């Protein structure tokens, strides 16, 4: 397995992910966020430039403010409800996605393929797995119903041509296959890694590099990807994390629970 | 294990409910007596989610009573799933996510049992489990839904879901089968002796689960008077006639959390994560011996968790009321 | 229209209905009660011999105690919630019927037929009605889903061979027709009037007199009914309202809002 | 009147919702400005039930703004239904029961308009209306159900309901079409400037209605700070992003009731019942002139109801908190 060489930096991979993902948020959006990097990224955006961004948690919370240093262990504890606008049953918060109130779903990923399908269920064959992973949680629901951002480490074993098991549908087999399966809404919008930012071709729905992080080359990204990547006509280079951004992250997660 | 159809016929569902004693009556009992209401082979639904409002006191009693062949369902399954497998109480868990918690890594105990085909982890999407309980709660045989399509999660449950063309819009729509558990275990902050229960904070899937089940065992931090319930009826979430047992079990979710009262006992959970990942067989076995089979009572179990840990969890737990 | 002659009495027709209906209740039952006579009857039973009887209101209330002299104008006002165990949305309280938690539904009726079908929608043809009545409310739901008691005045124009419009299904066309229509549960159990108490034949589902009130003859009942009644083999005579029963009713409804 | 399919396609529903401004923003406005959000021909759902928590201040504003061709839906319709017909704002009410209230007898105004075919009273069962809103709230095209079978109520709505054989149990099951109103009018005890609303006591069908609608206009007894909402998030029932307008309208349900604050103004309702049954055309017209078109403002309307009546209704209303 080829490991990439990260440019020398004053931040961790998770911090890089959180910063890059936070910049994809827009003020006023309603973001359904998973725990860890997604929560940190959404909160970072909220603190810096998107005060009207609203976070939803799968556990049943609308619009909480996270208390620095008191990050929740999952989306289902009382820490997720601090100073929130509303708490509601799990089923009902997930139904907000189905009804269409949510702009963006935002989660981490264990394995992703060229069409943005995510696997968090099985490594190897499902009937005879090498590793039984924890499973979908709300992942299948969120990715079936809304536009998605995924943040994950860029490794060849994680970026594969076809995932072993489609836990959360991306663009399935590309083209119109997602809509044809009965999923006319949503789809994987952005993949944020420690190397690059990727989207998907409008027609083929193949993964396509849109931006490279500072000091990262196309070759590095391709080397760490298990399938042939497309590259956009105009690739941008992202600005490295600013001190201000890192400061907020470190205030939120002083023990580096999610940013180690 | 019961060989029942996936979805109960309406006549069977109504008959079961009709023959329950739904009258207003006191139903306070001990954990041990409540455990007798759960029969080997029952489908038991577990309230709360991950490490939140898990009815651990009742689970503790079921494991001590050496129940067998339970089918367990829960929104998201944490340490209690490990212990169901490790204790031999269940070899079948229906859930959307199964591992102690994201900060502790993938459960080695879950992996050991599933990868070696000692037990089954039946995976449904989170919302689908919720909607299955909801259909059960509403007395309908299925709930329309729009997820699990196209994915292997949907394919793997096979013909337990149906896909139909909507007669109104012509679109594809999923029909999820209703789930009416034999028993639901639910922990609440307070209820009266009849079982009128008030839940603060996150509700998870507990209300639908209670309405769907054929039997409800409530554990509660405290039993309050019926008068107190009647003063704030719009805070009651579970009505007495769905409830079959009320057990007062203070700190009944420890080392998990109970909203507004105590947060998770993190050091204890770190300890469990450590020993269970060092050895996914002997680790949980040792844990069960020490904390489940060993203590002579629920207070004795709490004493083993430690006074300091309990006070610390309580201090953190009450903090939501400081705002 | 033949009007019956009521025996001289110290109570009103509505009081008689409430007393007779209350005696059909059993302690511990869960009763879905309409406003007016049903509420009075259920409350009377609760006060006299069924302290564990629980009343549900369509407005969304479980187990209220009615404050004497403060009867609600419908099942949807705050008076319906006084000292109740729980309030919940309308849809959810009606779903308790569908789920099967309710023993008895209990309502009044404008028009009933020999199979216990009720009409509260139209007098005359629905497309060209003589009178547009208020409609079903929860009546259709309650009578479709549970065993029913109906309390109403015994008049020929109200007891007809076939109702003009089936608002709330009784036994439809008798026999197995109700179950065959997709209504396998519930059905009209008792009709309480100021003359008699009626049930329905187990096979034909035709209305059948089970009991006559004190001083009422079979002929009187038949005269005030628009179809041929069956009579049970052993007709009982009901005991007249007792002072104790009337006292409770008059305490509950001192202004005779529902018992005039 | 809009010629739309009975049930919106999922794409249409999602598109409508996507293009709404769902961001956290203040949306406090006057009754008059809120009335501009309702367009002629809209389907308008009315919160509350009978004479309870009826959003009368907003209805008052719509009638004064001389809206036309509204299709109205409500669980149970009381005096506001008479006034919709009599004012010419609507000729089509979808409801389960339509009359001022059982104690006042059958509405002569409803009878006049329906028996003379001046307006349509479309009758569905109470639960069916609730389940139609619920399906709309959940983003599904239909809800399975078990009533309206065998009856003329079911037959009369014709192929707006479908009956199918359940693929799981083989039983007959009704499919009710989802209802996604253009606008929902809901009155609450308190909300913040963003529209986070807390409702005390009876909820009726308001929550489902708010989630189902494409636009929500909230009237509220008082606007509280967002801080206050965030102190008791488990009492919030309607989230801000469903809401398009917040109007502070004290006594906004008068002469109907608002739970915990005021009971119905019974003498006023007796008066309305009397004049409207004496003459179902001129009675409500006179009433509209005096109480709807005449007053120069909402406080002026309340003044016409009378200070003594208002204080009496408040005294009775607060009594639920005396226990």
Description of the structure:
The complex is a heterotetramer, with two copies of chain A (260 residues) and two copies of chain B (323 residues). Chain A has 260 residues and is an alpha/beta fold. Chain A has a single domain (13-254), classed as Glutaconate Coenzyme A-transferase (3-Layer(aba) Sandwich), CATH 3.40.1080.10. Chain A is 23% helix and 25% strand. Chain A has seven helices and 15 strands. Chain A has helices at 13-22, 37-48, 90-99, 139-145, 177-180, 218-223, 243-252, and strands spanning 30-33, 54-57, 61-62, 86-87, 104-108, 111-113, 118-119, 122-125, 128-132, 147-151, 159-160, 187-192, 196-200, 207-213, 230-238. In chain A, helix 2 links the parallel strand 1 (30-33) and strand 2. In chain A, helix 2 crosses helix 7. The longest helix of chain A is centred in the first third of the chain and has 12 residues, at 37-48. Chain A starts with 12 loop residues before the first helix and ends in an 8-residue tail after the last helix. The model of chain A is unreliable at 1-7 (pLDDT under 50). By secondary structure, chain B is of the alpha/beta class. In chain B, strands 1, 2, 3, 4, 8, 9, 10, 11 and 12 form a nine-stranded mixed β-sheet that branches. In chain B, strands 5-7-6 form a three-stranded antiparallel β-sheet, covered by helices on one side. In chain B, a hairpin with a 6-residue loop joins strand 6 (162-165) and strand 7 (172-177). The longest helix of chain B is centred in the middle third of the chain and has 13 residues, at 126-138. Chain B is globular, with a radius of gyration of 19 Å. Chain B starts with 9 loop residues before the first helix and ends in a 5-residue tail after the last helix. In chain B, 62% of the residues are buried. The mean pLDDT of chain B is 97.
């Amino acid at each position: 397995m080829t490991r990439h060489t990260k440019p020398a930096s004053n931040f961790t991979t998770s911090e890089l992910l959180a910063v890059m993902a936070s910049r994809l948020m827009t003020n006023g959006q309603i973001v359904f966020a998973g725990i860890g990097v997604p929560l940190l990224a959404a909160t970072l955006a909220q603190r810096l430039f998107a005060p009207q961004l609203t976070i939803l948690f799968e556990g049943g919370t609308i619009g909480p403010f996270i208390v620095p240093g008191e990050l929740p262990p999952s989306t289902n504890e009382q820490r997720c409800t601090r100073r929130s606008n509303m708490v509601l049953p799990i089923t009902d918060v997930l139904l907000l996605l189905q009804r269409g109130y949510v702009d963006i779903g935002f989660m981490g990923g264990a394995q992703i393929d060229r069409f943005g399908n995510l696997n968090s269920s099985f490594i190897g064959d499902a009937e005879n797995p090498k590793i039984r992973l924890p499973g979908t949680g709300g992942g299948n629901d969120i990715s079936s119903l809304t536009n998605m951002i995924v943040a994950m480490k860029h490794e060849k074993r994680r970026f594969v041509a076809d995932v072993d098991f489609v836990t959360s549908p991306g663009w399935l087999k590309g083209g119109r296959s997602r809509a044809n399966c009965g999923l006319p809404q949503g789809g994987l919008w952005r993949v944020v890694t420690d190397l690059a930012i990727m989207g998907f071709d409008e027609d083929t729905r193949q993964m396509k590099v849109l931006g490279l992080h500072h000091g990262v080359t196309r070759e590095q990204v391709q080397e760490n990807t298990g399938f042939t990547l497309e590259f956009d006509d105009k690739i941008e280079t992202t600005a490295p994390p600013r001190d201000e951004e890192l400061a907020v992250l470190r205030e939120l997660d002083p023990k580096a629970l999610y940013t180690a | 294990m019961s060989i029942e159809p996936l979805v109960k016929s309406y006549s069977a569902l109504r008959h079961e409910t009709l023959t329950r004693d739904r009258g207003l009556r006191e139903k306070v009992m001990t954990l041990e007596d409540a455990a007798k209401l759960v029969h080997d082979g029952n489908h038991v639904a577990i309230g709360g989610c991950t490490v939140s409002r898990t009815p651990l006191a009742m689970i503790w009693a079921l494991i001590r009573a050496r129940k067998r062949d339970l089918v367990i369902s829960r929104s998201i399954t944490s340490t209690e799933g490990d212990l169901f497998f490790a204790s031999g109480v269940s070899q079948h868990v229906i859930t959307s996510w199964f591992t102690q918690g994201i900060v502790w890594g993938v459960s080695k105990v879950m992996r050991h049992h599933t990868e070696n085909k000692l037990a089954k982890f039946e995976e449904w999407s989170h919302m689908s489990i919720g909607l299955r309980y909801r259909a059960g709660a509403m007395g309908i045989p299925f709930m329309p839904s729009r997820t699990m399509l196209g994915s292997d999660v949907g394919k793997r449950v096979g013909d337990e879901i149906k896909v139909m063309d909507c007669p109104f819009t012509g679109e594809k729509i999923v029909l999820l089968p209703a789930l009416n558990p034999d028993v639901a275990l639910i922990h609440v902050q307070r209820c009266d002796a009849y079982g009128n229960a008030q839940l603060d904070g996150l509700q998870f899937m507990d209300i639908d689960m209670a309405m769907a089940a054929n039997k409800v065992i409530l554990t509660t931090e405290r039993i309050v008077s019926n008068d107190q319930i009647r003063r704030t009826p719009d805070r009651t979430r579970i009505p007495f006639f769905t409830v079959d047992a009320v057990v007062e079990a203070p700190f009944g979710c420890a080392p998990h959390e109970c909203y507004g009262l105590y947060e998770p006992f993190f050091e204890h959970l770190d300890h469990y994560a450590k020993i269970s990942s060092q050895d996914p067989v002997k680790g949980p076995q040792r844990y069960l011996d020490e904390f489940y089979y060993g203590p002579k009572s629920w207070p004795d179990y709490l004493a083993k968790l430690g006074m300091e840990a309990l006070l610390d969890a309580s201090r953190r737990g009450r903090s939501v009321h400081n705002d």
